[in-house]
Amino acid sequence: RWNSLSNADWQNADGRRGQLAATDPPSFATFDSYKYQRGHIDAFRTVMRAAAIKPPDATSQVALIDLGAGACTVAIAVCEEWRPWEVSRVGYRAVEPHVTMRELGAELLGVGSGLRTVELTEDVRDISNVSEDRGVVVLNYVVHQGDVADSDVSGWAELIVDCAHRAETEVLITTANSSR
Questions:
Q1: Each residue of 72-111: pLDDT tens digit?
Q2: How many whole angstroms separate alpha carbon 52 and alpha carbon 45?
Q3: Structure letter (DSSP) for residue 129
Q4: Percent of the chain with pLDDT over 70
Q5: Minimal CA–CA distance to 126: which of 93, 101, 151?
Q6: How far apart are CA 158 and CA 165, in angstroms?
Q7: Which among 28, 65, 126, 152 counts the fewest CB atoms within 10 Å?
Q8: How many separate helices (H) and strands (E) can be counted in the chain?
Q9: How far out from the chain centre does Cα 129 lie?
C-alpha cells in the first residue's frame, strides 16, 4: 500500500502530525501508518514495561481493548513483547473510526498474530461483552486528536467502568505532546 502513494499524497498528508479524522482520505491513513507505526509500537512496548503490564498466565485471559487503534499498533506491540502462548490468551478489541486504518490493522494482524480473538470496530459501543479475567484498556496516541468529541470520551469512560465491574482492569494512556 505504501508504494501506491503518489507524490501529491505524500505532500497532502505530511504536516498533519498524525491528526487523522474518520473522514480523511485513505492516503492519509496509509501515510500515517507508514510514518508513525513503528515508533508507536516501540513507545507502547516501553510503556508496557514501565507500567509493569503482565501477560496472562496459563490459567487466565486478558481483554486488550485498544481505543483509537490506528493500524492495531497496540496488538502488534503485545505480539512482539509477550511470548506466543501468552499472546494466544489475549482477546483483542480495537476501536478505530477510520476504515482504511482498520483495513491496514486487519492486514497486519492477519499475518499470524496468534491472538485468541480479534474484533475491529469503528464505534466503542460495538465492543462485545468482555468476559476475560483481566482487562487492559489502552488509549494510545488518541486523546490529543483534534476530532475527539465529548461523546467519544463518554463512550470510553462507560467502557472502562463496565470493564472494571467485570474484571481487574488497567488503563494506559499514551500521547504525543500537543497544545490540545
A1: 999 999 999 999 999 999 999 999 998 999 999 999 998 7
A2: 10
A3: P
A4: 83
A5: 93
A6: 11
A7: 126
A8: 6, 5
A9: 18
